[in-house]
Structure prediction request, 65 residues.
Amino acid sequence: MDTRAPVQPWAGPPGLLLGCLCIAVSFAVLIITLSTDTDRVVSPAEEMGIAAAAVAHANAATPAR
Prediction:
């Protein structure tokens, strides 16, 4: 006589539900991002300016050794 509880694959741990929700939200954000704001052109000079400002800020915030 088998006394084990029946297996219920749909009753998974809450982490599985949270993981599926995160993946669904990620895809939704990706689709929304790619479908909107397509007319904005970003120049390499603008991107390098932002990167240089971030590096300068990081260097200023790092204490000298």
Q: What stands out?
A: The two ends are 71 Å apart (CA to CA). The mean pLDDT is 80. Residues 14-35 form the longest helix (22 residues).
